[in-house]
């Protein structure tokens, strides 16, 4: 694969983890926080820029992700829902002209790794499809790669709408890569207990 690919990533980390009772992004798994795991995977996959959208727990998260290789942007309207964080992340991409696309990732899928990110990029390059989604639990979801032609559509999302709306809307231009453990995400203390028991 051409290592000079230009794909960025927007990591959505603005939620307040209300069902969990503490910031899920800072939960520890395998010796690192969930948010750090996604950042490290993106860096290893040579995604650039790595943009993190914070919201509810911005100060706590900023302390954890304080490194020069990332761009941290605060979504002051995070309570509007997922769409506001996507818009904040896309808008923060100063110079999109060199980007072929971006990956949208969330911060509570503990099994995201650089191999998955590279698979999304490779599939985008080999399939010539504009959207590459992760496939798990018989559905398509995050992380998901959007070609730059979809940036405007991402900016038009409203409220709780997220990547799934565009995956459905443009289904004929979607390819997928398998992400066997993609269905494991952390929303509750029970989810976290099960993760640590695996």
UniProtKB/TrEMBL annotation:
MobA-like NTP transferase domain span: 10-170
Alphabetized UniProt keyword annotations: Transferase
GO molecular function: nucleotidyltransferase activity
Cross-referenced InterPro entries: MobA-like_NTP_Trfase (IPR025877), Nucleotide-diphossugar_trans (IPR029044)
Pfam families xrefs: NTP_transf_3
Highest taxon, organism lineage: Bacteria
PANTHER family in the cross-refs: MOLYBDENUM COFACTOR CYTIDYLYLTRANSFERASE (PTHR43777)
Name this polypeptide is given: Nucleotidyltransferase family protein
Species this chain originates from: Dyadobacter luteus
């Amino acid at each position: 694969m051409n290592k000079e690919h230009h794909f960025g990533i927007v990591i959505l980390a603005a939620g307040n983890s209300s069902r969990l009772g503490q910031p899920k992004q800072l939960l520890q798994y395998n010796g690192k926080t969930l948010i750090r795991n996604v950042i490290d995977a993106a860096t290893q996959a040579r995604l650039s820029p790595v943009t993190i959208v914070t919201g509810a727990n911005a100060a706590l998260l900023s302390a954890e992700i304080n490194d020069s290789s990332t761009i941290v942007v605060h979504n002051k309207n995070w309570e509007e829902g997922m769409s506001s964080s996507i818009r904040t992340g896309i808008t923060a991409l100063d110079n999109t002209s060199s980007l072929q696309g971006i990956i949208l990732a969330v911060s509570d899928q503990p099994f995201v790794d650089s191999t998955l990110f590279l698979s999304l990029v490779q599939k985008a390059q080999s399939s010539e499809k504009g959207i590459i989604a992760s496939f798990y639990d018989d559905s398509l979801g995050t992380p998901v790669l959007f070609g730059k032609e979809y940036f405007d559509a991402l900016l038009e999302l409203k409220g709780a709408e997220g990547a799934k709306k565009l995956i459905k809307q443009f289904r004929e231009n979607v390819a997928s890569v398998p992400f066997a453990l993609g269905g494991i995400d952390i929303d509750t203390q029970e989810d976290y207990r099960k993760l640590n028991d695996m």
